[in-house]
Amino acid sequence: MRRSNLPQNLGFLLLWICMITTLFFLLALLFFIVSKGIRIISWEFLTQGPRQFMTQGGIAPAIVGTIYLTMGAIIFALPLGLACAIYLCEYSPKSFIVNLIRIGINNLAGVPSVVFGLFGLAVFVKFFGFGVSILSGALTLGILVLPGIISSTQEALLAVPQSLREASLAVGATHWQTIKKIVLPSALPGILTGVILSIGRVAGETAPILFTAATFYKKGYPDSVFSEVMALPYHIYALMTEGTHPIRQTEIAYGSALVLVFLVLVISILAIIVRQRQRIIYVH
User: Fold this and answer.
1) I want to staple 233 with a disulfide (CB 3.0 to 4.6 A). Which of 135, 137, 175, 206 is the partner?
2) Is the per-residue pLDDT at 5 higher than 80?
3) C-alpha distances out from residue 16 to 4, 31, 155, 181, Å
4) What is 39-283's CATH number?
5) Residues 183, 164: contact at Cβ < 8 Å?
6) What does the domain layout of the chain look like in residue ranges?
7) What is the pTM of this model?
């Protein structure tokens, strides 16, 4: 009996080791960022713009720019990803072409972000003439996370029991009414999980906005979707690669990294709260 439990015990031990290792590195990362960045956090740092070649002042324009780009990307990608996943799961016939499309979507999720940046530069900045702007950056970031949103939405839709669809159709509901009233509410927590992961990726990307949206230094805030914008990821990159005042700029970079982590956490927590409420509503 003891021998038969040995593989199971070893498996649980391995799982515990992996979990503890993951938590250790996560906590170590958070401790490092907080210990380095908390020194410079102040009301002035959070509410004012940069001054004196970004060695004084704050990062308020970069915070606002990051929020604009993140929200713009999700607003663009979520409806498209949701519609595509609904078609692939609920309407498309089972064929070789559809399977090929699914494989292509999964492969696009692994394409390096710099490639999406070059695509955004060629298509949105130059071909459509949007220039280096919030619009170009948001569209590029939206395309970047679109495969992930499609894949997570498909998984959420496929996890809905087929019996719920059959019961809805049996009482006279149409296919679309079944999707709208039964399938989507059931799958919404899983869809929001994919959105949360997408928000984290969008907020932290540097390469795509480097070509399409971000500027090194900008006074004030953007006044339209065609304005250049400061963003926290690019701001951190610029500070760490610019060597005019390395000590001061390194401090500001760590403070910006802490603000970026906090911003992503706040947005993710809000999305998690919405997801939990939807689960409660669906259960009741």
Assistant:
1) 206
2) no
3) 20, 22, 27, 40
4) 1.10.3720.10
5) yes
6) 39-283
7) 0.86
Q: How many degrees, rounded to 5, is the angle at CA 210 between CA 205 and CA 214? A: 95
Q: Are strands 50-51 and 56-57 parallel, antiparallel or unpaired?
A: antiparallel
pLDDT in tens, 86-108: 998 888 887 778 888 888 888 88
- At 280 the pLDDT is 66
Q: What's the CA gap between 227 and 221, in Å, rounded?
A: 9
What is the distance between the alpha carbons of residues 75 and 88, in angstroms, rounded to a whole number? Answer: 21
CA distance 255 to 245: 16
First to last CA, the chain: 44
Residues 177 and 22: their CA atoms lie apart, in Å, by: 43
Residue 47 and residue 64 in contact, taking contact as beta carbons nearer than 8 Å? no
Nearest to 232 by CA among 113, 54, 53: 54
* pLDDT attached to residue 283: 57
242 vs 223: CA distance, rounded Å:
27
Once rounded to an integer, what is the mean pLDDT over residues 142-156? 91
Distance (Å, whole) CA 76 – CA 182:
25
- Is 126 in contact with 183 (CB distance < 8 Å)? no
pLDDT in tens, 199-222: 888 988 888 999 999 888 777 788
